[in-house]
Each structure stands twice: as structure tokens, then as C-alpha cells.
Amino acid sequence: MCQNLNKWICLGILFTAMLLVMPAIAQLPSATILGVAKDSSGGVVPNTTITITEVDTGAKRVLTTAEDGTYRAPELPVGHYEVRGEHAGFKTETQHNITLEVTDQAVVNFTFEVGSAQQEVSVSAEVSVVNTQDATLGGLVTETAIKDLPLNGRNYVDLSLLQPGVTKDKNIGNSATGGGGGFGTTFSVNGAPDRSNNFTLDGAVLQNQFARNPSSEGGTTLGVEGIKEYRVITTNFAAEYGVTMGSQTVMVSANGTNLYHGDVFYSFATPRSTPKISSIFPTVRRLSFKKTTSAPRSADRSKETKHFSL
User: Fold this and answer.
1) Cβ(117)–Cβ(88) under 8 Å?
2) Binning pLDDT at 50, 70 and 90, where does residue 109 land?
3) Which residue has the higher pLDDT, 310 or 237?
4) In angstroms, rounded to a whole number, what is the distance separating the alpha carbons of residues 140 and 39?
5) 298 CB burial (10 A radius; 0-12, 13-18, 19+)
6) Which of the 8 DSSP states describes residue 157?
7) Which terminal residue of the chain has fewer beta carbons within 10 Å of its beta carbon, N or C?
8) C-beta of residue 90 within 8 angstroms of C-beta of residue 39
């Protein structure tokens, strides 16, 4: 009896520990900066201090290059960056205008000139737009596209249909009521079943009960204010994603900066403002209220955005 009791207590502790760890994993951002430090003759420069600064928030990450001169900074939030390299006996070099998008692996190399560390060289970084780090294929839905492209019902998932290899699934029944097993926009990627698509937001799986998309029972989603950008990975995604064989939709939530901002809106669709689609959908009525605010958590530290839906 005591042994069985101890077993269940151990299982309970293990389960609780897993629940505590999962949120930490879910908060991982999703971009990388990597490169190598060399001198003007082509020799590697180990133990170089690399400082990566997110321009919008002032958040910094400091690391040093390895014996072969390489460095790698994973799990960076998407945004705008500058990277600074310092080593005794060489001029300090700072590279500006580096933009990280979701799942990016930006290569930022340094070529140091002999001189005093107090002397500074400032350059505009030339980050290749071609992915040279892996063989994944897919498309990026940018922050500009989410904000500016017209969307029926403000459903950002509809923008996935613009990516190569993505085909809308029209055979799941009544998408408004879930008939046939689904709500909202559902799609197939490269011919895979519509259940073979995984959606993550800041690393956490975001699926409804039918495992087809992140839509609610009403066919609505988080809204365009809550999503900064996302990438639909359609082919050769890494084992770190797993779960499905069709695609990976990797989303990043909107975050704050050193400035306060926000918005309030009300949108509506009524039978008078929308045409009759068919006998299955005789009328459309949708009312949406939302308030979003964004503020710094503290000066020049990592920021967060708070979203409130009414």
C-alpha cells in the first residue's frame, strides 16, 4: 500500500514539474544570429566579445567567440538589431540595420582591423536574404501584410493561402458550425491531410479540438493585433518541430517597445452589409470589439504587450 502511494506521489510531482517547465519552453523566441570573427589576414579571432542589442527595446545579449572564432546566439526575439564586436588589439566594429524575422538564421561576420579598441568602425550589415543554414522551404507572412491586407473576419490564417503549396480545404462541411469537423480556415500543404498542420505561438502549440487550425468554435482567431508575423514552413522542417508531416506555422506574438501605444476598434458584419452566400449560410452577423495596449515593463528592458478582447 505504501509503495503504491509513493508511486502516485512521485508521478504527481513529476507531472507538476512538467507543467511548470512547459510554459518556460513555450516562451522561447525564434530567430538566431551567428557568424565568425577574423582579422584582416583571414585568421580567426577567438575570445572576441560580441554584444547583440535589440534596437527597439535596448535588450542586450553578450557572448564570446569560441576557439575557432565562431559564435551563435539562438532564441532571439524578432526585431531590429545591431551587433558589436570587441577584442584587445583591434578596432571595435559595430554592424547596424540587422532585421530578424521569425525562424531566421542571420549570418553576421566580423573582419577586424588592427588598432586600439577605443577606435570604432561602424558598418551597415549585409545579411543574406537566402537561407544558407538549412534546407527548409516556406513563406513569411510579414507584419505589414497582416496589418494592411484585407481580411474577411480579421482571420490572419487566411494569409497562409497565399503561400506556395498551400491549398484551401473546402470539404470539411459547415465551417461556421463545425459540421464535418472544423471551424475557420483549413488547408492542405503539398497534398498532405488537413490534420497534418501544426500551429505554434511563441513556441506553444495553438490548435483547436479538431487539430486543424487555431480557430475558435465561432471561426474566429486571436486577431491581427495579437500576431506580429509568422512563417509557414512547408518542406524539410527540422526535427525540433515534429508532430505533423504537412507544415509548421510558426507565429510570434506582438511585443512592446520603449514607447506606449495601443488602439481600440469595433467592427461589424450584418445581413444588410453582407450578401447572402447560399441557403446554408443565409445571413452573416458578426460583432467584434477589441482593445490593445503596449507598454514597457521597465526602461530599456525586455517588453511585453497586453491584449484585451471584449
Assistant:
1) yes
2) very high
3) 237
4) 35
5) exposed
6) G
7) N
8) yes
Residue 34, C-beta contacts closer than 8 angstroms, at least 6 positions apart: 70, 71, 72, 73, 105, 106, 107, 108, 133
User: 282 is written with which cell numbers?
Assistant: 443565409
Helices and strands per DSSP (H, E), number in the chain: 2, 19
Evaluate if pTM is beyond 0.85: no
Q: Which stretches of the chain are assigned E, i.e. beta strand?
A: 31-39, 49-54, 60-64, 70-76, 79-86, 92-100, 105-107, 110-112, 120-124, 137-141, 166-168, 187-189, 197-201, 204-205, 227-235, 247-253, 261-269, 286-295, 304-309
Which range is least confidently modeled, 83-87, 126-130, 175-179?
175-179
Cell 505504501, residue? 2
DSSP one-letter code for 19: H
Contact between 70 and 34 under an 8 Å Cβ cutoff? The reply is: yes
Range with the lowest mean pLDDT among 191-195, 263-267, 275-279? 275-279
Work out the pLDDT band at 28, boundaries 50, 70, 90. low
